[in-house]
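Before going further, learn to read the protein records used in this course. A complete example follows; check for yourself that the lines match position by position.
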Amino acid sequence: MAAAPKVGFVSLGCPKALVDSEGILTRLRAEGYAISPSYDGADLVVVNTCGFIDSAVRESLDAIGEALEENGRVIVTGCLGAKGDVVRQTHPKVLAVTGPHALEEVMTAVHEHLPKLHDPFADLVPPQGIKLTPRHYAYLKISEGCNHRCTFCIIPSLRGDLVSRPIGEVMREAENLVKAGVKELLVISQDTSAYGVDLKYRTGFWGGRPLRARMGDLAAALGELGVWVRLHYVYPYPHVDDVIPLMAEGKILPYIDVPFQHASRRILKLMKRPASGEDNLGRIRAWRGICPDITIRSTFIAGFPGETEDEFRELLDFLDEAELDRVGCFAYSPVQGAKANELPGALSSEVREERRARLMQLQEKISAKRLERHVGRTIEVLVDEVSAGGAVARSSADAPEIDGVVHIGDAPQLKPGEWAQVKILSSDAHDLRARLAPGKSKRRAAAQAS
């Protein structure tokens, strides 16, 4: 039998792009292609790019250049592919270029330049598809695109308007992931709160019962699967309040990722942010009243065009009062094609970066104070890595790769993907240090009893 054609793969960008990569890899394997871990072992290479900010564009173009130099046969997909002829002008030797979430176009290009085997073994592909994450957690993309037109963002021009997946399809994927050993589902999209709007919250079916395509209904259903469910990219619409009781009841993780972006109403209006008139401090207090252990993560932009020093101080005052648990901040980047670039009052790169640094300096103190509350507590964690020096795990407050971790000393009996009970010994501005607590994880003990 002829050897299977081999495809190399480079995946860049955000979790949404990662899910696109997983879909392409799943299709490749289903059609009998092998995946090569190196350039020299591949018959061609697919590069999934990011094109959101200038630094991401440079990284993507460099990755394409490296693949061309090392292999010579390259297909480009992803967000950078949607930005006109940037790829072709920089790297004219690429075989094909597509935009994001373009599975069929990518496969057509692969078929043209590397024909598939005549009789692929489709049953070699597991039901959950090919995943690039560790076995114990996975991203679950519930929709694609966005209906908003935030002036600093070009995502709608790259990925289009909101298109929600049918809820039955989402739940079947989630079930397959859990059956394959996934312990944590990270729900992602461009706008998780808007899930189902385009479908007019159409009713689907899961396990023979009706289920509406709506964020709260989806979160409740996912909460029945017995694994961690973590919500990302949640815009602060009023109906978001409905999922907080699910967190308080332990149905889903007490964690919510809400990109507030700023605190000044004038700046939020210039950004054309949805829910710009909401009383976010009031919402945060209400959420904590319902679920005291909730972890709130957010992102902000410092140095937006026209932002005054007083408006920036308003943002710092908001952070000081809100005491968010996890915060990321970007200095405003004039992304090509963003409407915000046309606004008056552009700030120098030095001012933008100085404000970003001041914000993160304040947040570091807030984060250290918030984490110190956990010292002395016994909490449940999910183990990511184990070595001779101990284990690295995450608590309910820690999303992979963007938040902190829990360092566990001397725990050779632990394995990646296990839940464990640990006692917190100390903290810093980002991470916790712990030791194993006596007894089994409550979740594991419950599973053994059932």
User: Anything to note?
Assistant: Residues 164 and 287 are 26 Å apart (CA to CA). The two ends are 47 Å apart (CA to CA).
